[in-house]
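Now read these lines:
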Amino acid sequence: MLSQQKAGATGSGYFSIGERILFGSYNFMMYIIKSILPINLSAFHPFPPTNQSLPVEYYLSPLFFVGMAILFFYSLKRNRIVAFGLSFFLVNSLLIMQFFLVGSAIFADRYTYIPYIGLFYIAGWLIDRYAKNKMSRAYAIILPVSIILSILTFRQSSIWQNSAKLWDNAIKVQPSSKAYDNRAVLYRDEKNYQKAIEYYTKAVHINVIDHEGYTNRGNVYFDLQQYDSAYRDFQKSLSIKPDYYTAMDNLGAIYGLRGQFDSSIIILTKALSINPDYAPAYRNRGLAYAQSGHNEEAIKDFERSLKTQPDDPDIINFIGACYLALKKYPEALTNINKAIELKPDPHFYLNRAYCYNAMQQVEAARNDALTAKKGGLALDPAFAKLLGIE
């Protein structure tokens, strides 16, 4: 519990104590049912959406728990075998029953490997009673069951071929915002932006408090340069989780693109007050500082960003551009040279051309400007004329 709390994976203000009791009894019921009928398994079993009523099986689960309790006390008066098996199962699975909320899944099959020893102890005892020391009778049960379970295991393992197949199966078996979110990530990586938006939209429709879903959909809109739509999604995410620094960072980037540098700096500073180690916010705030003429502050933020991304050529080039604006040409040249070594980007060459020109190294400036032009950049006419470039 302490390790989960440290990782920020515990607790939720969205479920009442009564709902948590239902979650615990539902888990108890489903873990036992899945041990008998291991079908419709999924890599992810979601919590019920907060904007919908709990399914009827949640309300029936306490009756199942009461039934098991009666069986437990009956066994105590007889041979205690069933009581021992149920106790072993319950004790070893108590912390994953979601009486204390941990993670984003209502239950997870992988946590039952040890607890199930208790249930299979009961199964072994029942088979032994039935067989009455006749191994042929025991094998008549064990062999068919083993074959069935082997087939089910083989079929289930096939969904783990790749992430796309895994989350497609999760959507088919247990449709949830998390499954749609994770599948949308893959579509975005494939640059299938429309499909990613479609799946993120399904995610937030299932779970209206899916702040990550709104932020991620906003990122796709950002990729498509649909900044107004991205802005709305980031704002929606923050209305759900006001301290979500990732959405703050993204919103700060939007403000920067709109030229609202003061607003950008304010919200990015707030994001960094929540997570001082979040490198993307330093980068975005550095850009806002640089574009608003606060080059010394920008350099500090860019250097802080480099602590986690020491070989980021874009950041190093930005530092060089800031030194160039401050007329500290040797420092500018050092950084821009390093950026070009890491990535020969035409923008870097153009920055170095301006630096060389300021240092009155006209021939070097001309060569870099020509390299930038060959790379597809349009030169400022006045600067091109100064260097004798047609």
